[in-house]
Amino acid sequence: MRHGKKFNHLGRTASHRKAMLSNMASSLILHKRINTTVAKAKALRKYVEPLITRAKSDTTHSRRMAFSYLQDKESVTELFGPIAEKVSARQGGYTRIIKTGARLGDNAEMCMVELVDFNELLLQESGTAKSKTRRSRRGGGKKQETVKEETTAKTESNVEEATVIEETPAEEAKTDEVTDAKAAEDAPAEEPKADDSSEDSEEKKKGE
Q1: Where is 123: in which H helix or E strand?
Q2: In terms of domains, do 98 and 146 share one?
Q3: Residues 103 and 28 in one domain
Q4: CA distance 31 to 29
């Protein structure tokens, strides 16, 4: 009887299923991502994530337990080496399942299983998105935009008024100079005054 055995048997016997999951786990640890069906990926996630958690404590017992599941020395050294270093700050959820569509032939749902901390592109995108995100109240963004627009309009108007005030005295001085020059040109030239002493001397000569 199979009372309480609700996990996915994957159409295989127990020995076949354990060998398959062991090989898939060692391949995932060595290559950091593999392509498989969604059903196998979900079963693999339950199989490999406890091993990654065990790799955080690098002891002889934990290495022997990991080897009993993986049966591969290279994958064990990789698990307790770079993978344990990258995963040290993460509390769980070490793998990611990305669906890739249906398989030709039997139309099985395919996916890609990968280790989260080894996809550098997604890590960079998430870092930039987190640095830019900001929560605000409903409608607060619109209010802030309107306030910013009003402040910018006020500053621009103040700058324009200041420039007009600075330019007006210079323009008035220029206009005063031009009007003075025109008045000087239009004024008639003054005739030289004759000396009164020369006129008196001529009159005296005539009287004599």
Answers
A1: helix 120-132
A2: no
A3: yes
A4: 6
Question: Are residues 75 and 110 located together in one domain of the fold?
Answer: yes
Give dist(CA 146, CA 140) in Å, integer: 10
Q: Which tens digit of pLDDT belongs to each residue from 150-204? A: 777 666 666 666 555 555 555 555 556 656 656 556 655 555 554 555 555 555 5
CB 90 within 8 A of CB 117: yes
- At 91, is the secondary structure helix, strand, or coil? coil
3-state secondary structure (DSSP) of residue 34 = strand
Segment 132-145, tens digit of pLDDT: 666 666 655 555 66
Contact 84, 56 (CB under 8 A): yes
Specify if 179 maps to a domain: yes
CB 102 within 8 A of CB 108: yes
39 inside domain: yes
Q: Which domain holds residue 152?
A: 142-184
Query: Looking at the 3D structure of the chain, how many domains does it have?
Result: 2
* Tokens describing residue 203: 């009159």
Kindly state whether residues 29 and 85 are assigned to the same domain: yes
Question: What SS3 state is found at 98?
Answer: strand
Torsion sign (Cα): 48, 50, 51, 52: positive
